[in-house]
């Protein structure tokens, strides 16, 4: 918006739209509405017409309000065209059929929006992760963990139906107990200071088609592995069927994410606001380990990577937390 000297002097009437005025530095500035439509009566008529727009002509696309006639909306939907890219010439920017036809003529009739646009949840996740990277000074620490004892415990402690607890369950179990000894990592940066959380509520990443959720195991440090496993499986099922409640995905104080089911050895994750950290776990593979006496052994191993908020956690604290997780994993719970 260009402010002129004329418009800023008290008692001097602002120029009518369409009028040419002289700017602060002597340049000629023309207001937005073209001449010929600049009368006060004309503006009143346009405002009155805009107020008469029926609600069905208003859409919200990607957070932007778009006004289009029902006919135009129908045509755009069939052709896979995003109306947010079209400039409307009707009242209050209403997109008319002619606007759509002109746009198609210029674009060669090709759709500008890929089918399967982001859902509201995906957009919310995208905005949250973007904000996290912009606001939180992430730093990352990784280490290798031998998983033989963990896998042996999983095999020995089968469920009543003969099944095994999930790897996600064991990671949550271990992380919850480590957080009990590192309360600062179980906190949030609020109003320029860390605020410690009373409970340890661990979220875990679940992919459901194109969606990504982080259901929360509440008071995870007070539950045994089998209790956590029952909740993990229940919440994962709800996520994949689209039946998660708001409470299921709120209140987390730390998050874990596991890509071990894919050929991913290691990765760095983005912290889930407003938490102070997240643990990323890669696949469990085999490696040749040479002990202190020169003995060679085939071991199961995985790489874990912690992402931390450097405003709250320093390098030494993060390293000690990773050491604790490693000790718990290699100790077989």
Compact overview of the structure:
Helix content is 33%, strand content 22%. The protein has 333 residues and is of the alpha+beta class.
The global form is elongated
Helix percentage: 25-40%
- Over all CA atoms, what is the radius of gyration? 29 Å
Q: Which CATH architecture of the domain at 136-330 would you pick?
A: 2-Layer Sandwich
What percent of residues are in strands?
15-25%
Structural class computed from helices and strand pairing: alpha+beta
Instruction: Tell me the number of helical segments per DSSP (H or I, 4 or more residues long).
Output: 9
Distance between the termini: 63 Å
The CATH class of the domain at 136-330 is identified as Alpha Beta
Number of strands: 15
CATH fold field value of the domain at 136-330: Chloramphenicol Acetyltransferase
Low-pLDDT residue spans: 1-38
Give the rounded overall mean pLDDT. Answer: 84
Give the H and E element order: HEEHEEHHHEHHEEEEEEHEEEEH
Q: What's the story with the biggest beta sheet? A: 7 strands, mixed
How would you describe the oligomerization state of the chains in this entry?
A: single chain
CATH superfamily of the domain at 136-330: Chloramphenicol acetyltransferase-like domain
């Amino acid at each position: 918006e260009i402010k002129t000297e004329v418009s800023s002097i008290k008692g001097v009437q602002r120029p009518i739209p369409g009028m040419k005025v002289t700017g602060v530095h002597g340049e000629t500035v023309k207001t937005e509405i073209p001449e010929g439509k600049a009368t006060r009566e004309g503006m009143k008529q346009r405002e009155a017409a805009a107020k008469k727009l029926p609600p069905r002509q208003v859409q919200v696309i990607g957070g932007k309000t778009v006004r289009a006639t029902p006919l135009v909306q129908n045509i755009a939907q069939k052709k896979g065209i995003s109306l947010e890219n079209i400039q409307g010439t009707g009242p209050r920017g209403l997109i008319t059929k002619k606007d759509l036809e002109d746009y198609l003529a210029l674009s060669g009739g090709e759709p500008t929006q890929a089918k399967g646009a982001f859902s509201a949840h995906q957009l919310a996740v995208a905005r949250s992760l973007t904000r996290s990277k912009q606001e939180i000074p992430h730093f990352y620490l990784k280490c290798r963990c031998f998983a033989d004892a963990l896998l042996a415990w999983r095999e020995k402690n089968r469920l009543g139906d003969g099944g095994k607890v999930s790897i996600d369950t064991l990671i949550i179990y271990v992380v919850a107990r480590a957080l009990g000894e590192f309360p600062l990592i179980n906190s949030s940066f609020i109003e320029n200071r860390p605020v410690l959380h009373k409970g340890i509520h661990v979220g875990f990443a679940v992919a459901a088609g194109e969606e990504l959720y982080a259901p929360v195991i509440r008071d995870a440090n007070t539950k045994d592995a089998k209790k956590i496993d029952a909740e993990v499986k229940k919440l994962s099922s709800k996520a994949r069927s689209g039946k998660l409640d708001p409470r299921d995905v709120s209140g987390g104080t730390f998050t874990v994410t596991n890509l071990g089911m894919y050929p991913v050895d290691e990765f760095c994750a983005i912290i889930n606001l407003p938490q102070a950290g997240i643990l990323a776990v890669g696949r469990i593979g085999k490696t040749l380990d040479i002990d202190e006496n020169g003995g060679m052994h085939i071991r199961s191993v995985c790489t874990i990577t912690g992402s931390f908020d450097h405003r709250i956690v320093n390098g030494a604290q993060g390293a000690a937390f990773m050491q604790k997780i490693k000790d718990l994993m290699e100790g077989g719970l």
